[in-house]
Amino acid sequence: MNIESLPLPSIIRQKLFGAGFLTLDDFNGLKPSQLSKELNSSLEEACEVLKTIDDVNLVRNTLKDGTNGCRMALEILQEEQRQKSIITFCEEIDDMLGGGIPLGKTTEICGAPGVGKTQMCMQLAVDVQIPTVFGGIEGEALYIDTEGSFIVERASEIATAVVEHCGRIAASQQNHDQLNAMNTFTEDSVLSGIHYSRCQDFVELIAFINTLPKFLSAHPKVRIIIIDSVAFHFRHDIDNLSLRTRLLNGLAQNLIKLAMENTIAVVLTNQMTTKFGGEDGSSRLIPALGESWGHAATIRMILYWQASQRLAMLYKSPSRQEKTVPYQVAKCGIRSNPSEVFGQKWQQKLTVEENPAKRRKVSSKN
């Protein structure tokens, strides 16, 4: 296949021609650092080229086997109905999502600082390890930290609370299988099941994402990948909005592919930014990274404050209705709000104007 057919910007194709690259075979065994030197370009641009070539080769190989990658809709439906979800330990959020964070999909959690995004991520990294005899998935977690906000002491507190919760269930029901499972389901085993990686810039993040297929092959028990947050480096390190959009689109496609092919949950946190320009000169908070990024994740949940109450809004989902529910961040982790007065009283107060991200189409470069 000639590189003229590659879905790359013309300026990049010209660089490839100038460096002597004519067909896809010319890239066999080439590393990003080597291609970067050949093209006299940045490492991220070289990664983008090689990622595009890998995607094209995958499609070509799929077409060769005669299946064209087609599946029956009934098969997909039955497969999704069999999939378990990762609970959040907040019953209202779990019900809103249809059982919890789904496997095989990407979920974006947006919110302002301090509202509980990282707390939610640490809770999920623990909950994914709940043994199957308690209705859990009994998997492991990969936690990719871009902001340095992961606190292992806090993760330990959450792990202890979940282990004690399962222990109380086993003791009350005197279930033999559950009691046996508690011999190995401990705080230490939970912390051992969280694989942690600190990415210092967007180049490290993209490079690490590209190595995830090998990582998942070596760690088949991983059932959730958490990136906290996806926005940090892209907002602060890249001024070229066109480049940022291309890199984010490539990253999103990689993560969607990983989620579907490996039946894992991918959870991304995103920051909020201020949008000015209302007719009355007002401003409001919207998720960062622009409007095009809003289509990247399958599910988008927005966490925000209303008065002193934390609220979680399901903003985007292919199968669930938009809804807003309360939650709290307690010492033991994410939990349901103990107040019983939420219901009608709070729902009546959630108007379009009060909601920080309610559906007005905007174009933002932030």
* Cα Rg: 22 Å
Helix content: 40-55%
Integer average pLDDT: 85
Oligomeric state of shown chains: single chain
Straight-line N-to-C gap: 38 Å
**Overall shape:** globular
List the uncertain runs: 340-354, 357-366
Number of helices: 15
Which class of secondary structure composition applies to the elements?
alpha/beta
Sheet-strand content, in percent, reads 15-25%
Count of strand segments:
13
Q: Give the SSE order as H and E letters.
A: HHHHEHEEHEHHHEHHEHHEEEHEEEEH
Instruction: Specify the biggest β-sheet.
Output: 9 strands, mixed
Query: What strand line-up does the widest sheet have?
Result: 5-4-6-7-3-10-11-12-13
Describe the SSE topology.
Elements: H1 10-18, H2 32-39, H3 43-64, H4 73-82, E1 85-86, H5 91-97, E2 101-102, E3 106-111, H6 117-127, E4 140-145, H7 152-173, H8 176-181, H9 187-192, E5 194-198, H10 202-210, H11 212-218, E6 222-228, H12 231-237, H13 241-262, E7 265-270, E8 272-276, E9 283-287, H14 290-293, E10 299-306, E11 309-316, E12 323-330, E13 333-335, H15 343-349
Parallel strand pairs: 3-7, 3-10, 4-5, 4-6, 6-7
Antiparallel strand pairs: 1-2, 8-9, 10-11, 11-12, 12-13
Helix pairs in contact: 2-3, 3-10, 6-7
